Amino acid sequence: MEKQKNATFYYQHDFEKEDQELRVEYNTSLEDDKEDKRYTTSYIIPADYTVLENIFLKQLVHENELTVDYTQSLTEDSKLEAGYDGFYDKVNLIFTVNILMHQKIIL
Fold first, then answer.
1. How many domains does the chain have?
2. Domain containing 28: what range?
3. What is the chain's percent helix, strand, coil content, to nearest 5?
4. I need a surface site. Which of 8, 26, 32, 63 has the fewest CB within 10 A?
């Protein structure tokens, strides 16, 4: 089962001076993924036994991106541009495996 949420925030400021602006954008996403798998395997040869496997996987991913851009015209032919673009990712992973072997003994 997978769940995903996203959000984006945007801000732009125009200064009183012409051709000068600041833009800020922030993106965030959260993804929650779960898997629960159960297997049963039966063997006849070399011995009569059954293997039960339970596999559980949970993954939580949180991603963030921040972008900041500043522009200002200096002269008619030149412009100052500065900015930042940063990423931050966090991943939590839980992985569990349970194995049970059951052998039939006939007397």
1. 1
2. 2-103
3. 0, 80, 20
4. 8
